[in-house]
Amino acid sequence: MSTQQLPNREPIDPGRVRRIPRHFAWVDHRLREILPALSLDEIAVLFFLHLAADRNGCSFWSDATLAKRLGLREGDVIESRYGLIQKGLIAYRYPLYQLLALPEAKKAP
Question: What's the pTM?
Answer without folding.
Answer: 0.80
